Amino acid sequence: MTQTLTTAPRLRIYKSSPELYDAMMALSTASSKDVDAELAELIKIRASQINRCAFCLDMHTRDARKHGVTEQKLDTLAAWAEAGDIFDERERAALALTEAITLLGHDGVPDDVYERAAAAFTDRELGQVIAMAVTINAWNRINAAVRTAPPRR
């Protein structure tokens, strides 16, 4: 039995449930505090790549460019672990943690991934990075469920 998938939008969820949008925006604002804008966009893009959220990828790659993320980083982000020194240690730690949170399995976030991030960030920053990864995953899942598509330009 095969499934047929379409890309037609399903529900304009933010119109039908505006309080959801408001709550998600509040969570996004809270998770963004004290996180470098470039790093924040890398986190959002990487989770959105894994979750295949075209709407979020479109938005956050544009935002990343505005915040000065290089084309080389954007071009290699999907393979950041193999990209040599293109990404610094804080970015690599945040991306590893983002992937572990996004692909969360029965064993949770591996100790080595968490410890790497804990060594790279203050407790405050680590909490914000975790919250940012959780928040973009929530946005991705909402948009995937209702098939929010990026606008054509």
UniProtKB/TrEMBL annotation:
This is Alkylhydroperoxidase AhpD family core domain protein. Keywords: Oxidoreductase, Peroxidase. PANTHER family: 4-CARBOXYMUCONOLACTONE DECARBOXYLASE FAMILY PROTEIN (AFU_ORTHOLOGUE AFUA_6G11590), CYTOPLASMIC PROTEIN. Gene3D superfamilies: AhpD-like. Pfam families: CMD. It comes from the Bacteria. Residues 18-99 form the Carboxymuconolactone decarboxylase-like domain. It comes from Mycolicibacterium chubuense (strain NBB4).
